[in-house]
Automatic annotation (TrEMBL):
Low complexity bias: start-end ranges: 355-367, 379-391
Native species: Blyttiomyces helicus
Start and end residues of each ZZ-type domain: 61-118
UniProt name for this protein: Transcriptional adapter 2
Any one Pfam family match given in the protein's UniProt record, by short name: ZZ_ADA2
Signal sequence residues: none
């Protein structure tokens, strides 16, 4: 059985087997005392450390490290090159194809060296310790239990000697060990059950992509008042500085401390409310309606003077108030439409949705939509010019279908004549109210409003502007002639 010699940190350099056998034969001929003091070679240069960091515990036991990144691999799985001598890599460097020297190539054959921590012959001796015991016997010889125990690293010389006697010497098949137990049928390679890895608090995008947030350090790449460090990074206090300079620097440091306090308050607000969990915040916002989002946005200004629980309670109360108001408005609309029973509301809402989704035509438009404009309450100074019907002109285009605004927002603010005007011009009530407010403000400011001025103020189709202007003149709301000045 050939056992590959393991490399050790802060131990003698690996030597070839011929040189080892010659030294062991020479030591055997000189007597048992020579076996207790084998010659040691100088430390390899790559294992050299500062004197302050080297202790006696570092030399005790078997040590392995990655030849690329110098990571300690003593208690983890490592990759050993089957071509290069005494060459180990960690899993990370092996996966990237690291080639730390000119000898090792990433396409070399390799072996996976697992942690053999399960017992074979005795419960308190693991398989890795059994291998180290056999290697120690091969390297130092039987009887040099102190060096063998140092090679194993976890057992003393008395435990090594007693274990060797019980397992190997007292075996009926000496030098083979005692194998009384039955084979348990354990597979050759048993995968270790790893603990479940918790999902990070970020998601797609990750925390690193959310405003430059670094979850490992609980910091942001761009902090609040990020330039504050520029004023203190090169500050020094000399021994013979004048008192004025010391006072100035102390004031700057106090200002910087205040900046750190403000940063801490803002971070506390963010962490208490879980704003770094991008997926959760996005999922909650996506379920809210536009009106609810507007309320939450307006209430954010009070977040810094409230705790997270108080802010949540206030937002919840405001959202409940919004839902109650919407329900009241819905019931009032149903009563105006003659629906007085709760059982009929669902049918009414279904009919309303069907009317909104179904395009209207002249054949289905009520006759009252084509009624003439009502007689103005205040007679106009100049009657409107008679317009030539477009349909009477040769080759004229057929007028478009009227717009159904019965369920549009703001229709209850219009008179029946204005509703008819908006339907014919295909204007929504809210847009018409903005046009009306603009024209009436201009007329109130200047005392007159001409058609050309109305077209300059309202940047829509000039034909629609002219019809709106004519309607306002007919209703007596505006006039192209200046109002008389009252004395």
């Amino acid at each position: 059985m050939t056992v590959t010699q393991k490399k050790r940190r802060f131990t003698k350099e690996p030597r070839d087997n011929d040189a080892q056998l010659q030294e062991q034969e020479g030591a055997t001929s000189q007597g048992p005392s020579a076996l207790h003091h084998p010659p040691f070679a100088p430390f390899p240069p790559r294992h050299s450390l500062a004197p302050s960091s080297h202790t006696a515990d570092d030399d005790f036991g078997q040590k392995y490290h990655c030849d690329a990144c110098r990571k300690d691999l003593t208690h983890v799985v490592r990759i050993r090159c089957a071509v290069c001598s005494e060459f180990d890599l960690c899993v990370e460097c092996f996966s990237t194809g690291a080639e730390p020297n000119a000898v090792h190539k990433k396409d070399h054959a390799y072996r996976v060296m697992e942690i053999l921590d399960f017992p074979i012959f005795e419960e308190d001796w693991g398989a890795d310790e059994e291998m180290l015991l056999v290697e120690g016997l091969e390297m130092f010889g039987i009887g040099n239990w102190e060096q063998i125990a140092e090679h194993i690293g976890t057992k003393n010389k008395l435990e090594c000697a007693e274990h060797y006697d019980r397992v190997f010497v007292n075996s009926e098949d000496w030098p083979m060990p005692v194998c009384e137990g039955e084979e348990s049928g354990r597979p050759r390679i048993v995968p270790k059950k790893l603990p479940r890895v918790a999902k990070p608090t970020s998601s797609a995008p990750t925390n690193h992509e959310i405003s430059g947030y670094m979850p490992g350090r609980a910091e942001f790449e761009t902090e609040h008042e990020n330039e504050a460090e520029q004023y203190v990074k090169d500050m020094e206090f000399g021994d013979n500085e004048p008192p004025e300079d010391v006072e100035l620097k102390t004031t700057i440091l106090n200002i910087y401390n205040s900046t750190l306090d403000r940063r801490s308050e803002r971070k506390k607000l963010i962490f208490e409310r879980g704003l770094t969990d991008f997926r959760k915040v996005s999922r909650v916002d996506a379920r809210r309606a536009k009106e609810e989002k507007d309320i939450i946005t307006k209430m954010r200004v009070f977040a810094k003077v409230q705790t997270a629980q108080d802010a949540e309670l206030m937002n919840e109360g405001l959202l409940n108030e919004l839902k109650i108001r919407q329900r009241i408005a819905q019931l009032q609309e149903c009563r105006r439409m003659g629906v007085t029973k709760l059982s009929d509301i669902q049918e009414y809402e279904q009919d309303k949705a069907n009317r909104t989704s179904t395009p209207t035509s002249r054949a289905t438009t009520p006759a009252k939509s084509f009624a003439p404009l009502p007689t103005p309450l205040v007679p106009a100074t100049h009657p409107p010019r008679a317009a030539t019907p477009a349909a009477s002109l040769p080759g004229a285009r057929k007028p478009p279908n009227q717009l159904d605004i019965t369920t549009a927002d703001g229709v209850d603010l219009l008179s029946s004549g204005e509703q008819t005007l908006c339907s014919n011009l295909r204007l929504y009530p809210r847009a018409y109210l903005v046009i009306k407010e603009t024209l009436l403000k201009e007329y109130a400011a200047k005392g007159l409003l001409r058609r050309r001025q109305a077209r300059e103020l309202i940047k829509i189709d000039v034909n629609k502007t002219s019809k709106i202007y004519d309607y306002f003149v007919e209703m007596g709301w505006v006039s192209a002639v200046a109002r008389p000045v009252l004395k």
